## 1
Amino acid sequence: MINSKCHSLIIGGTGQFGISLKNLLNKKKEKVIITSRFKKSITKNFFFEVIVLDIYNKEKIIKIIEKYKPQNIFYFAGQSSPNISFVKKKETFRSNFIGCKNVLECIYKIDKNIKFIYAASSEMYGNLKGKISLRSKKYPVNPYGISKLKGFNLTKLYREKYNLKAYNAIIFNTESTLRDKSFFIPKVCMAAINAYKYKIKTKFGNLDIQREWNWCDDQCELLFKFLKKEPQDFIISNGKCLSAKKMLKFAFDYFKLDYKKYIIQDKKFLRPIDIKIKTSKYRESLVKNNIVKKNYIYGKKMVKLMIKYYLKNSNY
């Protein structure tokens, strides 16, 4: 009989976090199963097996858990754009909260020793003044942040009341070559390429924001280290807060161009509510858990890596 056990089950694993985490765990010789709601993902976009899973069908969740007997379950499913969440409020709520609730209920029923990791978000804190810590009050300003806060609170409840090994990873802006190009940093890189190749100008919304833009592989390395610690809530980020305009400058400097000549600010791309500055006290979580951070990829190095990738791949 074939052993179907796996170390980790990644629910909603066809995005940048799922793929990056799978690659990391595979390097550590761990068997990983990835699920997606879309059947087309199996044949078109990936070179590994993807299992179709409806996160709203608890019977199917139970069958997958019983079949593969995972030690860890990562929950990356969910509508992940704050901007889109204003349009798709119901989908955002259901995917980030109801799906999470269903998985937690199934773990509680089947095996309380399974570790559950929920991908929470810095968007839960809204327009907070000062750096975000685990003690900071949460005032989300968009449907995405609200849904993530509900998932966060539920995960914490299952840990404290029902003794599940449940973790909340509070994730800040994360980028990679797998990131959808509608998000800011990929759009910045493509804007620079299009300006250099075709003299095209690109429309943007608010450029007065500041963020800690992280590299996905770095975030997954930290995620893996926290998984070895006691169940808890923790922040993963790099503490390198940079402005949107600084990231634009990095991208256009790659081609020795002045970004101001190729960028148009358009009200159509403004969010109904935007967070100006978002930065973290990320070291607190590292120090508490005796985790040593490595040198992170961020800023100019991040932009350079992404531009080189887009230039090399003709299908961008």
## 2
Amino acid sequence: MSGHSKWATIHRKKGELDAARGKVFQKLARELYVAAKQGTPDPDSNPNLRMVVEKARSANMPKDNIQKAIDKAKGASDNENYESIRYEGYGPSGVAFMVDCLTDNRNRTASQVRACFTKRGGNLGTDGSVSYLFERRGVIVIPSSYDEEQIMLTALENGAIDIVNEDDSYVIYTNDSDLLSVKKALEEIGVKEFLTSEITYVANNEISLDDEGKQKVLSLVDQLEELDDVQNVYYNLKED
């Protein structure tokens, strides 16, 4: 299985998180707020919120920050609404992109996202133009210091669909509905360090480019992720 969530990318994004942790937490707080406001503020009875909480924990967001974002939704005005929007298109060298946003101003967000693509030699497409190239998956990444046979057996018995040993880590892919059960099973056998644990989109096939081509694509990724309204950027570039 391939996709932008392979450890090469996760490692890159962890570096970015260390350099701009406040911005990452700000986006996660918005995502927590929206998930809590659209359903119940109790993660145990709100699957969407539970998944966002899992994502926030994976990013080392402090427990107090997570709870504050959820509590904010409890007393929020009905006039304070965010809209989920997905933009699809192609970046440099034909690399497919999906850009998920949360916004209170659709026109502003559309203009900013379109400008990023245009400046970097890409173009936006219509709904569904590239989404068929991706699959929704759970991704768990743990250090490879744990016993490989035990990790593989436990993960597969609890719903994992693929396990890859790469970059001194195990990358475990699951169906989105099985992410938490696989993680719980790993915790029960003594796994304590999770480098990544989230629902994401994984590309069915990746595009290989030379170093110059990669940098052009990653430059677009960075520019998109700088936008306040952008929550997640998915693409089918092969990074390793």
## 3
Amino acid sequence: MLYFVIGLPGRFAEWCDAVVAQLARRAQGAAAVLAADTLPDLAASAIRTGTSHGVVACRRPDGRLRDALAERGRRFIIALDDPRHAVADLGGEAAQVADAIPVVASSCAAIASCDRGAGAGIVRAAEAAADPVAAANAIAGHLELAAEPAQIAGIVGALAEQGLGIDFAGAAARWEAVAPDPRAWAEGALAGYVNYFDSGTLTPLSWARELFFLGDRPAERAAWIIDITGRARCLLQGPGIMVAAGAWLMTIKLLFSREATEHEFLVELIADRPLAATTVKPEREGGLEVNFPLALEAAANHPLTIRLSSRRAAFDGACAMDVTLLTPQG
């Protein structure tokens, strides 16, 4: 028997994985923890470990896996933590935060697309931290893994001794210790999901320029001015973030120098395939907006990448990403 735990990458989801694994071991005698976000990944993990019993730790479940759980009426756990705490769990330095944001935001998008029907048992980090035994008991009850209260208390205590307790206050402190600039990048990319997990309403998202990379130097962040001098080429690309299913308006805000107004630029939006493209020619120095309406299917599981390219060689000029906004449409 396989038990599914869907959660953000971070310590709370790991705690839920461990609780379910211990409960499953008591019921079945053996239970591996398999990391899998797709059905092919799950099959490969089961073959590699040689087991069909255990916990499936999903951090970004794709549409086919989500649909399979719903169609078969399977029960699963959704471990809801504050996405900002998940970012802090992955590292507090600016570079670590910039790397963590696409990972956590994409996980948020997949979880937001999950069916919240009878099969989903939602466990929240703040409530679980206040009473971890009650949270573990709720997990056991939802997954129909019967255990005596003393056994559940013993599981929670043993995990705490191993360093797998729920430290919600510590996670909040780690988040507050993040420097203001990277904290602002994360707030923009995650605030809409924080609101959704709290209230059920998805609000706008924003992607800071620090989440993008130079087109011809993909290891270097496009944090400010991009020199367009030289041959026609990709100038900027990123951020490689998955977005929740539904209708969106994407507004890409770019900045151009006076010299760049002599040139045309190609703006593309790409997932697993090209989604949209347009050619722009700045009329004046300063800002320029490109709008792309999007309709993202629930089965989609592909990060979005924006690409800005020059169309011909340039002897002077500069451009920059200002910010990218995503506004839910209904």
## 4
Amino acid sequence: MRGRPLRLYHYPGFGLVTLLCMVILYAPMLVVAIYSFNAIRSITVWGGFSLAWYLKAVGNPVIQAAALNSLTVALAAASTATVMATAAAIALVRGRALRERNLAFALINLPLMVPEIITAVATLVFFLAIGFRLGLGTVILAHIVFCIPFAYLPISARLEGIEPWYEEAARDLYATGWQAFRHVLLPLLFPGILAGFMLAFIISLDDFIITSFVAGPGATTLPLAIYGMVRTGFTPEINAVSTMMLGVSILFVTASWVIGRRGREGGGAKP
């Protein structure tokens, strides 16, 4: 018994509890997705299959503008956060031993531990204190801050799996530090960088709480637009938009996980 791995699913009732948790988590999403194809306006009575609400949602100017804002914010925030997270990971993992390394790691991951509402209020107060006008720029800056830890985690995990021998061998062959980074470390690290970017992108795309606090006129993102539509009346059009966002989220999170896993298993990080 001592050498056997612990298998929780062998415990009586564990499978039932797991199934119940899965139903509670995902059944509402499944209902939303199903009724997004409803042919009638009702969100509780099935009236046949139709794509009309998807066509209406795609052709809605409000949703189009909000989707463009969301993509702009997500691309800018994820790109900047990924660059900063990559630099931080290299400094903490590959840099010289720092006495304050644990403190730096805690500061980078602080947005993951602080309640999002606290971050939103603090960010809003900061922008108002320095006289920064609320708008799309403040949304991007706020998203960059809380996206950094999401990008940092897969990048640092990938970097810790890459032995420093490759860079040392490049330096022995008279490569400069930049050349060793560009031609050796960066290709090996790229799966982690891509996984971190995709994770940060979808986190930014789906954010509502912080965005609702720091968004100004003309900075309505897709989650804010959905919230505004819900307040005026729930329709299958909202189900359609929510289902499309859910599909994009699942796609990006799954791709991020697959890329990160393949990078760890077959990236040639270890001899």
